[in-house]
Amino acid sequence: MRKYIFPAVMAVIATMPDLAMAQTKGSNGGPVVRSQGHPIEFVRKGTEIVFYVGDDDGSPLSTKDMWGRATIQDGGKTVTVPLAPANPNMMTGKLQAELSPKAIVVFSASLHGHSLTARYTAE
């Protein structure tokens, strides 16, 4: 039953208007999606994934007390990657293999009861 939960969550997230595809490029070269007013930039470097989190005004938001995960749907498989905070405003995770083009990546994080979610398609 659990194997059906992630695809269902991905389908719901894909239909939410707030989680539209990224429309701009960030200062680190990745796509940026706004969640609850916070810009979140997704950058992948080989098997490392990095999310740069900004505050409402666009300034870097400390991720020190943030917890999060990335849910990735790639090649018909869904995996969850735990994310760890890194200074000054990054959440990082390690993949077992590089993402293929068109992989769907969903960032989910929480800070002080404030939930952030962003959806990306790997390029």
Question: Can you characterise this structure?
Answer:
The chain is mainly beta and 123 residues long. The chain has one domain (2-121): Sandwich (Immunoglobulin-like), CATH 2.60.40. The protein is 11% helix and 49% strand. The chain is built from 1 helix and 9 strands; from the N terminus they run αβββββββββ. Strands 1-2-3-4-7-6-5-8-9 form a 9-stranded antiparallel sheet, covered by helices on one side. A hairpin with a 2-residue loop joins β2 and β3 (38-45). The longest helix has 14 residues, at 2-15. The model is unreliable at 17-22 (pLDDT under 50).
What is the topology, as strand order, of the major beta sheet? 1-2-3-4-7-6-5-8-9
What is the level 1 CATH name? Mainly Beta
Low-confidence stretches: 17-22
How much β-strand is present in the residues?
A: over 45%
How is the main sheet built? 9 strands, antiparallel
How many strand elements? 9
Average pLDDT rating: 87
Number of domains: 1
Query: What sort of overall outline do the alpha carbons produce when their principal axes are compared?
Result: globular
CATH architecture: Sandwich
Determine the number of helices (DSSP H or I, runs of at least 4 residues).
1
CATH topology: Immunoglobulin-like
Helicity, in percent? 10-25%
- The span between the termini is 31 Å
Give Rg in angstroms.
13 Å
SS class: mainly beta
